[in-house]
Amino acid sequence: MRRPAALIPAIALAATAQQVDRKLQSEFDDLSAKAAAMIETVNAMEQRARDNGDLINPAILERRALLQSSIQRAEDALRDKDMGALREQLVRARGHLDKLSRMI
């Protein structure tokens, strides 16, 4: 069966979009796993500090909350198939993760 010439670019565009979607999905998976590990680390630090009657730096707790929020928004964007919002939230989450890792 022959496809109309107009459909060939559309098919190629759809295949490229699927590759971008898979790449962003993979980036989300990697970043969310790293974020989960970092959040658990901060949670453990907070618990140890609490057990010792100390407080953890509030800036660390704030950055943890920002990381959690960015990951949640990225997950929402992924579920809604909003690749632009997903890309933006991944950039934000990566920035929060980097800053948080430097803080601890």
Give the radius of gyration: 19 Å
Kindly name the structural category: mainly alpha
- Number of helical runs? 3
DSSP strand content: under 5%
How many independent structural domains? 1
Principal-axes geometry comes out as elongated
Query: What letter string, H or E per element, gives the SSE order?
Result: HHH
- Helix content percent band: over 70%
Largest sheet composition? none
- Average pLDDT level: 88
State the distance separating the first and last CA atoms.
61 Å
pLDDT < 50 runs, ≥5 residues: 10-16
Count of extended strands? 0
Describe it for me?
With 104 residues, the chain is an all-alpha fold. The protein has 3 helices and no strands. Helix 1 (7-51) packs antiparallel against helix 2 (58-79) and helix 2 (58-79) runs antiparallel to helix 3 (83-103). The termini are far apart.
Give a summary of the structure in a few sentences.
The protein has helices at 7-51, 58-79, 83-103. It is mostly helical and 104 residues long. The chain is elongated and about 50 Å long.
What's the helix and strand layout?
Layout: H1 7-51, H2 58-79, H3 83-103
Helix pairs in contact: 1-2, 1-3, 2-3
Keywords, separated by commas or semicolons:
mainly alpha, single chain, 104 residues, 3 helices, elongated
